[in-house]
Amino acid sequence: MRTRNGESVLARAVRIFEAFTPEEPALTVSEISRRTGLHVATASRLVAELVSYGFLTRDADRRVRIGMRLWELATRASPSLSLRNAAMPFMEGVHDVVGHHVQLGVLDGDEVLFLERLSAPGAVINYTRIAGRLPLHVSSSGLVLLAHGPAELRRRVLDEPLHRYTPDTPATAARLRAVLVEVRRQGFAYCPGYVHPDALAAAAPVRDASGEVVAALAVIVPNEPGATSVVPVVRTAARGLSRALGAPDASRPRQRPGDAEAV
Amino acid sequence: MRTRNGESVLARAVRIFEAFTPEEPALTVSEISRRTGLHVATASRLVAELVSYGFLTRDADRRVRIGMRLWELATRASPSLSLRNAAMPFMEGVHDVVGHHVQLGVLDGDEVLFLERLSAPGAVINYTRIAGRLPLHVSSSGLVLLAHGPAELRRRVLDEPLHRYTPDTPATAARLRAVLVEVRRQGFAYCPGYVHPDALAAAAPVRDASGEVVAALAVIVPNEPGATSVVPVVRTAARGLSRALGAPDASRPRQRPGDAEAV
């Protein structure tokens, strides 16, 4: 079912969904048309159909938003929901003790996708948001996922130019390789000022019943001396969550081919 | 862009998404075909295209699931995310003190849709789940939303047969009408054993800057004498959240045409 220029209707609908961002969650049809490159008439027709399914909604002022029904269908059977639900009590425990930000990230493509974040009022700066992404090399969760991810992913990331957020970002292949070896050896990532000079992140791996790393649990706190005390907190929560997911004894991690030392 | 039998490609894609449920989050293509009534070849082709956009994914064993990308796009710009984020600290506070379940529901169609739920291990029975729904007349959140919702919604719900979950469910129009008047008068819903004999729910309205009720905050606890003590807790949190959303002074609710007393 292709349109004249060879693009499918579904591909166009995907482009419409992609036009909405956290910064601009409400768009007019002409804004959607501009952002997607679709004709206004085409955009208007597709928007009307998606509104009829509840996948988009219209404001009182006719601006279009993501619909509740899309959220509901995407969430209720999402594999991420059960992981997130299992993680919540552990995240709440960390958040009660540490404050600031606690977040849960998974590998998606070559980035970390954040499934959940708990934040205290007045917490330190944090670019993460729920359903937001960060590059793997800069985020503590990303470094954990990269260290334990497929070897070809590491090769690809190490081959690409690495964006330097601050002077402390591991933005060369040699430095990143060394960081990944440390993350594997220590069992956690400790990232002072990698994303922002004022913020320090620490993350630990979350394993499922197969022993595979399926997520990373992280805390973001002010980048100050003494912040190392968050490391045992986040490690304990990540291990507790792993055990809740049926992971084997995490104190004896198995060595597998493709692990970070191999890079 | 209609197919031969007049159904659009988008309508078919919607049916595919709807085939996945919390109980069956992974389906084979032939199961999808059976559930949607689509030809296996059609289902297979649409699934392949949706997989290519990350809207669906395939397991190692070729079963299909909701994709992370669909969740990401549905969540990151969702109007529900900002409400849910604003609600989280209030929900966590209630959860720390009350335990059991704390949940946030919004009106969607003639049902309550739950945006968030925090649950303690070993908490009392609760049929609610995130991105799950309940009828308005049986759930404490639903009763709050119904009491403060449009008059035509109340007329419609009162006209329909009301499912009786327990002997205590308000399942006649007369009883439901009386319950709604009480909810309006008291400023909260108190629902002992409406959904299950062992569970008691209490909910209070959440208002936004316009003063409109946009959500309900609820707690579910064991149905025991003394449970009334949760009422001021949930009311306080719901008012705090309302103030955080910019609501006017909630201690002086405005009387509007179409409020419950009018039914």
TrEMBL record, chains A, B:
Region (Disordered): 244-263
Every HTH iclR-type domain range: 7-68
PROSITE patterns in alphabetical order: HTH_ICLR, ICLR_ED
Gene3D superfamilies (alphabetical): 3.30.450.40, Winged helix-like DNA-binding domain superfamily/Winged helix DNA-binding domain (1.10.10.10)
Keyword line: DNA-binding, Transcription, Transcription regulation
Domain of life of the source: Bacteria
UniProt domain IclR-ED: residue ranges: 69-247
Pfam families, per the entry: HTH_IclR, IclR_C
Record-linked PANTHER family: HELIX-TURN-HELIX TRANSCRIPTIONAL REGULATOR, ICLR FAMILY, HTH-TYPE TRANSCRIPTIONAL REPRESSOR ALLR
Protein name: IclR family transcriptional regulator
Organism: Streptomyces justiciae
